[in-house]
Design a protein that fits this description.
alpha+beta
Length: about 60
């Protein structure tokens, strides 16, 4: 069984990877002048990549 420290370390690596993937996605979309396609309130919408922050920090929720 893994300890809490091992789980926290693994979670931190996953979050870091998600942040890097987001950064690369926004960079790629800007380079290709292509919109980000997301689901917002159950509807598919296109977002200009220049309208989103270039980086994002994920924070662990309470609970």
């Amino acid at each position: 069984m893994e300890t809490k420290d091992q789980l926290k370390e693994e979670r931190d690596k996953i979050v870091k990877g998600l942040e890097e993937a987001y950064r690369k996605l926004v960079e790629f979309k800007k380079a290709k002048n292509s919109p980000l396609v997301v689901v917002r309130n159950g509807k598919i919408v296109e977002i200009d990549p220049y309208d989103v922050p270039p980086t994002i920090s994920y924070k662990r929720g309470q609970g």
